[in-house]
Design brief:
This protein has 731 residues and is α+β, with helices and mostly antiparallel strands. The protein contains ten helices and 35 strands.
Length: 731
């Protein structure tokens, strides 16, 4: 009996790729006994003229988010990378594209899909100047699940019938813990016409990007078998039998599965846990009496090591934070490794929230503990089941997965492994001592290896040129590095396009010292008695300088206060400077001008709090101030019956150069800035805006005289001027 189920998630807007946070993640859970998985991928784009043909890349992975590298950057040293399975969806003339992806006999558990657009162009777009084309992507999942899948009991032959090639037979068998091998046999295989069978047996499930499904073809043979090493522990293993014969002939088979179970030898985890609690809680009455049984138990375990096939070391999982776990060995950080049987450590990563980080395993060999020269300790990190035959095969593979090998020796005593986005499962670390041929008694040799294992959101916290960001998709959390100063790669370790320290210092100096061009504007404003405007320009120069000193991506950084506060003050000062400059050019009455100064500043502060990067936060006050200025100029011209300003020198030498500089500044700011040229194009913006302000400020009032400190008398009498009657009085 088959049951179909449907799972859907909301569509997401795709982004051009510059780091992993631009990839849109979809997280699904495939139920047990699923025989068919079908992905429905729907991609669409807008209908505007800005929408062009686009290629969408979609990555698939089982157990963890896919590890992708669209930019072709380098991964950190000691990191293991296996390319993800991906397809491309092209949106050309059609507005929408629908693609199906089928997976037969998929592995149960978490499946992830990541979709993104091509590499980002790097141009800094001002919000509101251009309308980007929306590219949407949605992934839906259909599953076909078998509700009454037959169970194959170990050691018990089970007869079954394959009705036709169109209806394969599905069975499952449970793999017990400590199973070192599995033997599967197909016997008594005949067709309904009493002829030799022609069938194909598939063992295991399909996982992406790599699938290790085993295939066994029985053609013209009555009995056939298959042996597997290290099957996945405590999991259901799917077996599919397909008929390769004629469509009308059924096939009768008898299946038998048996397991070889390994007997582990280890110290008592319970006694180790008690001793751990005692060491943490301190000495208590009666605690000393427990040392004798523990010592006796350790002696019994040591005597039984030769008869066991593995030595299990108890490990405690300690959760530190989100996607942050530390593993502690109860017997200490150093573990004994012999050549008789592998030493096994369990690293639990099956909570469902551990696959969004990086698993780091570090091995350090105590060279003084190795009694044999040239001996090597080989290790293997694998998921689902451990590698128990390190001395025989050193390719670090299990029945349905490929592990990650490590080795330490007297010549190279340290080894590190970084597993990016480890799949959700039980992970195992197997260690065994390998001795050179014909050298001493290898059976009695032993080495001690210090093991450090932990799960971290970002390896090395993304280094000095990166920032570790915690991303979320519904309830699932995962981490990724956002690089800066030209650095790239998964952990910001690729310095191919990195900025040198000199370039970083130059960028900081240009962006900060270019604000000093406001000094001429401040001097002109003070000279012409525009003290409020001069105060605003001083405020803008100060916060723009220190905001850009704090905003630098490299090492040349200095923050005098919180970054968000500096950014807000910089944006506020920039917009208010434009606002007061245009109102000052309008030459309205002082009381009205100062009312507009205060009211406009309050409204600008409110709009910046709502949307700090919106283009209308700057364009709105500018346009409103220009309307006021034009209306005031028209009023002055109509009152005087000639053009205002009336002086052609004012137009030629001040207004036209100031307006030209302002338009060039806006063009540079809106259309020319990119991530690569930001430090000098934005510096040009600072210089042009500051110079335009100095040109656009109107001359002082005619009744205002220049600053003359000689007019201040020593006898504390001051000469005052009546602005209206132009009469002088002595006070």
């Amino acid at each position: 009996l088959y049951v179909s189920e449907y799972f859907s998630q909301s569509a997401q807007k795709l982004s051009f790729y510059s780091w992993y946070g631009n990839a849109k993640l979809f997280h699904f859970h495939v139920p047990e006994d699923t025989v068919l998985l079908r992905w429905l991928l729907q991609a669409s784009r807008g209908k505007g003229p800005e929408c062009t043909s686009m290629e969408i890349t979609v990555h698939f992975r089982h157990g963890a988010p896919p590890v992708i590298n669209p930019l072709g950057t380098r991964f950190p040293a000691n990191a293991t990378v296996r390319p993800s399975y991906n397809i491309s969806i092209t949106l050309s003339s059609a507005v929408q594209n629908t693609t199906f992806v089928n997976v037969t006999s998929p592995a149960a558990g978490d499946w992830f899909i990541a979709a993104h657009l091509p590499e980002a162009a790097g141009r800094i777009e001002v919000k509101g100047f251009s309308t980007p084309c929306p590219y949407m992507f949605q992934a839906d999942m259909f599953v076909l699940r078998l509700t009454d899948m037959p169970v194959l009991e170990p050691g018990v032959p089970m007869p079954h019938t394959v009705v036709s090639p169109a209806k394969p037979l599905h069975v499952k068998v449970f793999v017990p813990k400590h199973a070192s091998g599995m033997w599967f046999q197909l016997s008594s295989c005949v067709t309904s016409e009493q002829r030799a069978c022609n069938v194909r047996v598939l063992l295991g499930s399909i996982t992406l990007p790599q699938s290790f499904q085993k295939s066994l073809t029985c053609t013209g043979s009555i009995n056939c078998s298959l042996a597997l090493d290290s099957p996945p522990w405590e999991k259901w293993l799917q077996i599919v039998v397909e008929s390769l014969g004629t469509a009308n002939a059924s096939v009768s088979v008898e299946m038998l599965a048996s397991f070889t179970v390994c007997r582990p030898g280890s110290t008592s985890s319970f006694l180790n846990f008690i001793s751990l609690n005692q060491s943490q809680a301190g000495a208590r009455p009666g605690a000393a009496g427990s040392s004798a049984p523990a010592a006796g138990e350790a002696a019994r375990n040591a005597s039984g090591q030769r008869s066991s096939c593995l030595q299990s070391q108890p490990v405690v999982r300690e959760d530190l934070d989100v996607v942050s776990v530390r593993y502690r060995l109860l017997n200490g950080p150093s573990v004994p490794v012999s050549s008789l049987s592998p030493t096994l450590l369990l690293l639990n990563l099956n909570t469902g929230m551990d696959s969004g980080g990086s698993l780091v395993v570090n091995l350090l060999l105590n060279k003084t503990s190795v009694s044999l020269a040239n001996a090597t300790v080989v290790a293997c990190v694998s998921a689902a089941s451990p590698v128990l035959s390190l001395n025989a095969t050193r390719n670090c593979s299990t029945a349905f997965s490929q592990g990650y090998p490590l080795s330490v020796s007297t010549s190279s005593g340290e080894a590190m492994l970084i597993v990016l986005y480890p799949q959700t499962d039980d992970w195992f670390l197997s260690l065994q001592l390998l001795c050179p041929r014909g050298q001493g008694d290898c059976g009695s040799a032993e080495a001690r290896v210090t093991v450090f294992a932990y799960l971290t959101p970002c390896f090395s916290d993304c280094g000095p040129y990166g920032q570790c960001s915690l991303l979320r998709r519904h309830g699932y959390l995962y981490a990724a590095c956002s690089c800066k100063a030209g650095w790239g790669g998964w952990s910001c370790t690729d310095d191919t396009k990195a900025q040198t320290v000199g370039t970083q210092n130059l960028a900081t100096l240009l962006l900060t010292l270019s604000n000093l061009m406001f000094l001429p504007a401040i001097a002109v404003a003070v000279y012409r008695y525009y003290l409020v405007e001069a105060s605003v320009y001083t405020y803008t120069m100060f916060f723009s300088t220190f905001y850009h000193a704090c905003d630098q991506p490299g090492v040349a950084v200095m923050c005098i206060m919180d970054y968000d506060t500096l950014q807000y003050c910089d944006f506020l000062g920039s917009v208010v400077s434009i606002w007061v400059t245009i109102l000052c050019m309008a030459r309205v009455k002082k009381i009205l001008k100062y009312v507009l100064f205060v009211l406009g500043t309050l409204l600008i502060a409110m709009s910046l709090q709502l949307d700090r990067r919106g283009v209308w936060n700057m364009m709105g006050p500018c346009l409103f101030a220009l309307v006021i200025m034009v209306a005031a100029w028209v009023h002055h011209g109509a009152k005087r019956r000639h053009c205002y300003p009336s002086s052609w020198k004012r137009w030629v030498f001040y207004l036209l150069p100031g307006i030209t500089l302002a338009f060039i500044a806006i063009s540079v700011y809106a259309f020319m800035e990119t991530n690569e040229n930001y430090y000098y194009t934005h510096s040009i913006w600072h210089v042009l805006v500051a110079c335009s302000v100095a040109f656009l400020l109107p001359p002082r009032d005619k009744h205002k005289k220049p600053w003359a400190w000689s007019q201040k008398l020593t006898c504390r009498y001051q000469i005052c001027q009546n602005d209206r009657e132009e009469l002088y009085a002595v006070t």
